[in-house]
Amino acid sequence: MSISRRRVRAIVRKEFREYRHNGNIIYTMAILPVIFLIQPLVQAFAAPASASATLRQEHSLLYLLAIPLLVPAGVAAYAIVGERLQGTLEPVLGTPVRRTELLLGKALAAVAPSVVVAYTVYALFVAVIELFARPSVASALIQGPELVAQLLFTPLLAAWSTWVGVGVSVRSRDPRNASGVAMLLSLPMVAITSLIAFNVIPATLAVAFAFAVALVVLDRLGWRVASGLFDRERLIVGTK
Amino acid sequence: MNADRSGPAISVRGLSKRFGDRVAFDDVSFEIGYGEVFGFLGPNGAGKTTTVRTLGALVAPTSGTATVASIPLTPANGVEIRSRIAIMPESPGLYMRLTVIENLECFADLNDVPDAPARIAGALRAVGLADRARDVCGALSKGLRQRVALARALLPRPDVLFLDEPTAGLDPAATREVHELIDDLRKRGVTIFLTTHRLEEAERLCDRIAILKTTLRVTGRPDELRDRLFARTVTVTTLAPLPNPDLVFAGLPTVDSWRQDGATGYVLTVSDPALAAPAVTRALVRAGADVLTVGRSHHSLEDIYLTLLDREDEVDRK
Fold it and tell me: Cβ of A94 and B98 within 8 Å?
């Protein structure tokens, strides 16, 4: 089965236009990451120079990986149920669009801004630390491998969280419920990243590799499961 | 429009849809030719919208067969069918925060419309919205939103256009505008499947109609149905009561019987009103009657619809 890029692009473009016309979506996306910045910034500025050795052993910034997990979940959870609520789903499903195209478009439209927000917040954090924190603390906090981990895992985690949100959205009747359930289902992954950040799971190269492979597999699985949950008839008629 | 137009645009045989124990429609059969405007009438909850959704490959039938735009209605053909038809649902279903043109651009891409800008401009001109392209849909009136939805349905130049209650909730002026648009489409040879419970709308716009109330009660041209359901009659009104009506009406060609309707009114059952009316007029003049009116009885589609559903309800009760 082929996927029409034009149709996927149509969905993505439509979503982006809706973001542009509805600034609240972007503000909501940005608020959570900004809150997430407070704790590491306080920690960085409060830490004495002598703490740099301890900081170097920890990977506390990996906790910022919760951002790409939590931000897209809410957006993706609205993707299908929101269309249903607005009455726009039936006209869309009345076109030749395939469910995979629709879901892929919806997912990309949730992942892309989430990744941009997560990267921006992280870049902002790095810039503030490099400019204003004690140099020893800055060099302890900003480590090459962690930077790579942020760059690599942010899209993978955002994709996972998005598929969770889309999967919930295709089965939900209420956007508020969908958003809550999607956030809840993203929490186990938040727990894993937190355990790595707090050194409960050692942040080794082998762990990173295994985690990346697992996420790639999970992301593909998430797409398949979300597509499997998508039932055109149920979404239109609301029964079955 | 590239379908094989030698067969019917839509052919339905014994189609049924059930949701658990609830029957949406049952054992429905009909055919619609290309270029025909087919009215699908029925009360609320009769199964009209579910029929449209089924024929639009949005909902799977429980049993029966159908071809839509000459393509067999099967799950495997869903994408192919949806690329040959367009459905305008009862609610316009527009993205209210987006402009008219942004809505149409999205659907042009979803329908894989070639030369989208020209098609969009054409569709906007067809519905008289060329100057409102940059307006946000949420700021448009209900009638204008309906027009945008119609423009959206026209974008793929469908072989079959399904219009589900296109004038529901519109004021008379907006309703007239939508009727004019449908008239225009009919002149352009678009096959239209129109569901409505507005009988005057069906009478004005449709070549043939079907009346559905879970099962299909009747199909035909409105005048055929009139002939089928009602006796042909000529009504006469005179200034004063006729002293001996039987002498006037008996023996006239094509007049089968007559009855009095009020003091000065007479209803004649005839086999051919065109022959009977002049003969009756001459007989009345010969009898020295002061004739006020002589005319064919007109039964509206509403009469047909109500008579038919009343009869069916009576049968159901028995």
Answer: no
Q: Does B107 touch chain A (CB under 8 A)?
A: yes
* The residue to which tokens 């209803």 are assigned: B267
Residues B167 and B29 in one domain: yes
* Interface touch A92/B95, C-beta < 8 Å: no
Q: Is residue B310 part of a domain?
A: no
Least CB-CB distance to B152: which of A21, A91, A98?
A91
Instruction: Report CB contact under 8 Å: B110, A97.
Output: yes
The 10s digit of each residue's pLDDT in A91-136 is 999 999 999 999 999 999 999 999 998 899 888 888 888 888 888 8
A88 to chain B: nearest residue by CA? B93
What is the domain count for chain B? 2
Look at residues B221, B242, B270 and tell me which one is the last residue of a structural domain.
B221
Range of the domain at B100: 10-221
3-state SS, residue A175: helix
Asked, for residue B308, whether it belongs to a domain, the answer is: no
Query: Could you tell me the pTM of the whole model?
Result: 0.83
pLDDT band at A240 (very low <50, low <70, confident <90, very high): very low
Reported confidence tier of residue A65, pLDDT bands at 50, 70, 90: confident
